[in-house]
Sequence to fold (244 residues):
Amino acid sequence: MKLNLQCYVINLDRSPDRLNNMEARLANMPFEWQRISAVDGSLLPELLSSEVDERNYERCHGKPIARAEVGCYLSHIRALKVFLQSANEYALILEDDAFPADDFPQVLYKLLSITPQWDVVKLSGFHRAYPIKCIELDGKYKLGVPLARHCNTAALLYNRVAAHAVLETLLPMSLPFDHALEQPWLYGGKMRIVTPSPVAAGDGTESTITTTANRSFVWYKRLSTYLFRIRNELKRFKWAWSQK
Fold:
C-alpha cells in the first residue's frame, strides 16, 4: 500500500553516486520520490540579502558564514517550494546521505495516521533532545516534543501548513537550517521528533553540502552568540511546555 506523501531527495548535480545510493535505499519504499537539484553554495555568484542575513548569522552562530551551509539551507527551501507547487498533502524531504532503518515505512504509516499531532517531524538527529509529552508509535519509537537541541535535517516530514510557515518566517537565513527549524515558536508549528531516530543522520560518507570545520570566532567575539543561545534555550523550554 502506497503512502499518501511525496518524497523529495536533495542531491547536488556533481554527486550522481550519492543519488545512486539513495535510489537503492528507496527502491522498496512505499512512496514516490523525485530528485531536487541542490543549491551548490560554492557556485553562488553572491549572497542575496533577501536569502541570507550574513551579519545576523555571525552574531547568532558565532562563525563566519559558509557557502556550503547556505547551499544546504536554500536546498531545503527549494524542496519546500516544489512541494507547495504540487497537490500533495505531505512531503518527506531527505538529504542524499539519509539512511532509513528497515522499519522506517511503519513509522511513516503511524505518523500519517495521527496527523493532528504534528506539523513537521524530525526523523533524524544528532542529539537526544530529551523529548516530553510523548506518544507511542509502533515498536520502539515515540513521537515527542524536544526539550533541547536535536540538530540535523537528513529526514523531515511536513504538512502544507508547516511548509508555508517555514517559507514565510525562516528567510533570510540567519542560522544553519537545522538550528533554524528548531525554533517553532517563530513559525507557529507543531514541531516534533521521533526517538530513536528511524533515519540515520548520514550514511558514513563525507557531506557535500554542509561543513563540520571549526570556524568559530574567538571567545570575545562570540559574546552575542552565547547570549542568543541562552535566550533561545529559554524560549525552547517555554515553548515545549506550552505544547498540548
Q: What stands out?
A: The helical segments are 16-25, 54-61, 67-84, 104-112, 160-169, 177-181, 184-187, 223-242. The chain has a mean pLDDT of 94.
